[in-house]
């Protein structure tokens, strides 16, 4: 009996140690960013393509460069609120180093070593180039500071246990490209899969909130509970590449309808990018495989 008890205790210790190891934050190697210098001018492009202002500006405010946060993102797991990412040293991220920003953006880990919820699309940003992150860091420091505290997430048990997000990352964190493309489509893939994180809205999720990559860009329920996010796959989207590029520039569909909802923010961002970038994203979208054929 005593031997069995010792065996059970040992198994419990091993299980606990394994759980702690699996759920521990995974940070980037410091040497990756040690010699990088950011360019704030280039960083503005990264900021725009990545849609930072779309989520982090004050809801309803005309000023979209004071990133006080507060926008709500409802989900099956609770409601998440975009935090203050202005350069305020107390309430924002003004005190963050480049390495700390890189850990947040590409690993979903805070400077304090806590996991971020995947409402923050680090599972897309983790494919961004290191220099782009350095440039973004430089640009963020040029924006207005705001002392408005971040609004806490409204998430109940057990989803409020941050450590458990390490298990989610173990299952779903993926820094590899989803779609294989020829070289001429790599720019569009980079913008769509990484910076603009299109799949975060346009791809359905499984019961644990992970993206169902087998139905990549196949459309998804609207997290707000109102309607759905349309599919971008060839079996559903009949627009030409030119139609897609024009929509990203103007917000007008081939049927003379106009963009609405959060997509209006996305179009505003893309309208400030180059025509070449919009054409690249359109080409990537038209190259998407039908669901289940990837």
Automatic annotation (TrEMBL):
<dbReference type="GO" id="GO:0009055">
    <property type="term" value="F:electron transfer activity"/>
</dbReference>
<feature type="domain" description="Cytochrome c">
    <location>
        <begin position="38"/>
        <end position="144"/>
    </location>
</feature>
<feature type="domain" description="Cytochrome c">
    <location>
        <begin position="183"/>
        <end position="289"/>
    </location>
</feature>
<dbReference type="InterPro" id="IPR009056">
    <property type="entry name" value="Cyt_c-like_dom"/>
</dbReference>
<dbReference type="InterPro" id="IPR036909">
    <property type="entry name" value="Cyt_c-like_dom_sf"/>
</dbReference>
<protein>
    <submittedName>
        <fullName>Fructose dehydrogenase cytochrome subunit</fullName>
    </submittedName>
</protein>
<keyword id="KW-0479">Metal-binding</keyword>
<dbReference type="Pfam" id="PF00034">
    <property type="entry name" value="Cytochrom_C"/>
</dbReference>
<keyword id="KW-0408">Iron</keyword>
<keyword id="KW-0349">Heme</keyword>
<dbReference type="InterPro" id="IPR051459">
    <property type="entry name" value="Cytochrome_c-type_DH"/>
</dbReference>
<dbReference type="GO" id="GO:0020037">
    <property type="term" value="F:heme binding"/>
</dbReference>
<dbReference type="GO" id="GO:0046872">
    <property type="term" value="F:metal ion binding"/>
</dbReference>
């Amino acid at each position: 009996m005593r031997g069995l008890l010792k065996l059970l205790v040992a198994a419990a210790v091993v299980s606990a140690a394994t759980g702690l190891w699996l759920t521990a934050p995974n940070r980037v190697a410091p040497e990756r960013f040690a010699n990088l210098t950011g360019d704030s001018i280039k960083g503005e492009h990264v900021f725009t393509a990545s849609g930072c202002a779309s989520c982090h500006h004050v809801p309803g405010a005309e000023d979209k460069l004071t990133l006080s946060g507060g926008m709500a993102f409802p989900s099956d797991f609770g409601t998440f609120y975009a935090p203050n990412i202005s350069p305020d040293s107390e309430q924002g991220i003004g005190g963050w180093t480049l390495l700390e920003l890189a850990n947040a953006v590409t690993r979903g880990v805070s400077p304090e070593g806590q996991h971020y919820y995947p409402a923050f699309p680090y599972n897309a940003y983790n494919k961004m180039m290191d220099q782009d992150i350095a440039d973004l860091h430089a640009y963020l420091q040029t924006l207005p500071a705001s002392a408005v505290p971040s609004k806490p997430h409204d998430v109940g048990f057990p989803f409020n246990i941050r450590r458990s997000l390490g298990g989610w990352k173990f299952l779903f964190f993926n820094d590899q490209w989803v779609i294989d493309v020829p070289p001429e489509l790599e720019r569009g893939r980079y913008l769509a899969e990484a910076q603009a994180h299109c799949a975060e809205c346009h791809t359905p999720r499984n019961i644990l909130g992970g993206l169902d990559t087998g139905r990549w860009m196949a459309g998804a329920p609207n997290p707000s509970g109102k309607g759905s996010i349309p599919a971008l796959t060839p079996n559903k989207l009949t627009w030409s590449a030119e139609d897609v590029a024009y929509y990203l520039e103007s917000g007008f569909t081939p049927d003379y309808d106009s963009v609405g909802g959060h997509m209006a923010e996305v179009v505003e961002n893309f309208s400030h990018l180059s025509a070449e970038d919009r054409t690249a994203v359109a080409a990537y979208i038209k190259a998407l495989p039908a669901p289940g054929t990837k």
